[in-house]
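Comment on this:
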Amino acid sequence: MLELIQIYWAETLAVLSVVFGTVAATHAAMTKREVRSALGWVGVIILSPLVGAMIYAVAGINRIRRATLISRRALELDEIWRSLSLYGVSRETVVAQFGGRFGQMKLLGDTVCRHPLSSGNRISMLTTGEQTFDAMCEAIEAAQSSIILETYIFDRDAVGLRIADCLIAAHRRGVAVRVIVDAVGARYSVPSIIGYLEQAGVSVATFNGQVIMGLRLPYANLRTHRKIMVVDGTVGFVGGMNIRAAFVGTDAARDTHFRVTGPVVADILAVAAEDWHFETGEVLLGPEWRVQLKDAVPGAGTAIRAVVSGPDAHIETNHRLLLGAFSVAEHSIRIVSPYFLPDTTFIAALNTAARRGVQVDVIVPSQNNLAIVARAMMGQFDQILREGCRVHLSAGPFDHSKLMVIDRQWCFIGSSNLDARSLRLNFEIDLEVYDRGLAERIEDRIDQSLAQAEQLTLETLKARSLPDRMIDRLFWLGSPYL
């Protein structure tokens, strides 16, 4: 057989190319939800015989097939969930406080999201790395029963070691500690923080850890992009900030994180516990993982919903909720995102809002940490500028924040970027928040960025050199895969 293959190697290669190419192209055509995604993969497979099929097998197939294993954390906790139901927010309450349009948003959230809108919550905004990491360390040091932390990047630098040492100290005093770090994100620093935690006895898991040949693949699919920490079932942290030194010190990158208490912490804990179970098989049901509702009053506080998205049962949840939000906006839509490369449906919804007289502002960094993404964004901005949306390039250090405010009363905050990766391919967690006070604080944050931002115009785009514009559009063509 080997001799025959050696003699007829060209014919063998041709047969393998046809067989594997046919299988891969058929799989792409039958499983992809978007036409351009299916066409793109079929094109890669056909134009790159055998190699294209191999690339598709590695990067194009969604291997995440998981049920909601610990939805609302299991039947054993029925009593807790019955008490949590007291904090539910009715549509009538939302209508009375925010108007009928947002009553429709509440109904949409109930339909597309797995978690309810709950009252009795408190939320505070952390606007710097120093504030965020100080607050996280303070919570870890005060922990008495449990800590679960899930993040995309956890560097082994000064900040990472500080957080790790706090976790190790908590573990040594008897606190149940669980840490999930994405397999790709864990490789952003060498050596990884994983070994440091494991050597100290902390339970650590890497998410979706089958990374080819141990390589760091910054654009690999199906990553956990979530940034979660829950301590003692009482306080939670959610936002856009990874654990790394880049967010502290002079000229640090900017980001925004949030500290929450109240019933929504139970939903955030459920998400992290489900991801832990998915990777390890361990179900976190002991008394140390019980939710503690301290000072939470039903009907009071801030109405918040945990919005869970990912390439499993929750695919495009964030996308659907945002399209609904754009449709109810009457006055303003303000967006801060480091990576703005949404699909045509998303752009059409923004443009339609602008045509209805809604003031749409999109703020992105003038200096991006991913040059090819910055180029691709430049190749797409004309699609919204032509319809009356405004684009601003924020000055100063790179801003990694993901913030959205609609009509100065509805907020969408968390880990989701506005690109195909966050809206379709990665596991994300965001918060839908009905709170004029928080909206005002985020608006102030946006106003500070706008004060030093440059407004991008169609004339500015057209004034770019032809080679620059061609390169922008070339990278834009690859935006579904960036």
Observations:
- Confidence is low (pLDDT under 50) at residues 65-77, 211-219.
- The chain has three domains: 2-60, 71-109+116-303, 317-481.
